[in-house]
Amino acid sequence: MKRQILYVTGTRADFGLMARTLREIDADSALELSILITGMHLSPIYGSTVKEIVAEGLRIAAEVPVDLNTSTGAGMARNLGEMVIRFTDVMERERPDVVLLLGDRGEMLAGAISALHLNIPCAHVHGGERSGTVDEPVRHAISKLSHIHFTTSDDAATRLARMGEDPSRIFVSGAPGLDGLTELASKDRAALAGEYGLDPARPTALMVFHPVLQEQVTAFDDTVSIVEALQARGLQAVIIAPNSDAGADEVRYALKRYDSHEGFLILPHLPRGDFVSWMAVCDVMIGNSSSGIIEAATFGTPVINVGTRQNLRLRNDNVKDVALSRGALEVALGEALSAGKLSRRNVYGKGTAFETITRTLKSIDLGPATLSKVNSF
């Protein structure tokens, strides 16, 4: 009998990172994959990215919409409760053998809570990392509710063991977002510029800036500081709209001020292949996305990381942390443009996470002892 794997996805980001692994699971004769879709995937504001999942041909177990119209901490908490209720119904009907989760978002926490109370083991990817803000305690909470761990580094694996997770159930897979990354960047600069109406000869930035719950009050001004620094340096910019966390409205309102600015392209979503291609060919990436911390080093792209959202994460040599002030950002942009492409060494793995995750999911013991979790010290 095939082992049933249910993956919970709520954003364009998590699905894109896991796409290679999900295809591998789906193709394995010992496994059967289904997808629980929720969150931003189902909202036109965020590009209705459910269509990308449908295009993959993967079995969809359920679609669980939530209210994304109120980008506040209270709205995030209410959505978490709604998702626990609805996810429980889905998992009770589907009865998967394993629930697969990635990262630190509320959708994944809801999935872990539901699965735990239905005696379904959870496998968590990207546990054990530090990232500051609200993301870090949520990430660690998911880890403590999970039974199988796939980490991106030895550092993260050691931290999980120190948190009391069983070392025999911690597997260093590397980051799944690196799997097939260079092949995915299939469009060159000229092709992208032509397709998106930009000048291939002008320096170009890729900007991804998400709100931070604890810094919602400054989200508007922080966004303006970044965009005005790009303007001051004469850069073109491909700007991706923020996620749905508290403060998203403020970021979007700030970006609207630059809708008609020549050379600024503000998009609700980019297909994964185009996003990765822009990451590979742009002169600099700026914002606070994990893609800058984890993936951009594969292309040697300079990254200016701003604010606290990625605090304490392992850094590649291409990342520079910069204060959220226009002056500091202008200086950093000038330095990045002068430096050009940097080292392609990536501390987050070799692009083979899909192999470790798939192999482990089909072979690991899921007997009664799996669910009897206690601290290992």
UniProtKB/TrEMBL annotation:
It holds the Pfam family Epimerase_2. Residues 23-362 form the UDP-N-acetylglucosamine 2-epimerase domain. This is UDP-N-acetylglucosamine 2-epimerase (Hydrolyzing). InterPro entries: UDP-GlcNAc_Epase, UDP_GlcNAc_Epimerase_2_dom, WecB-like. CDD domains: GTB_UDP-GlcNAc_2-Epimerase (cd03786).
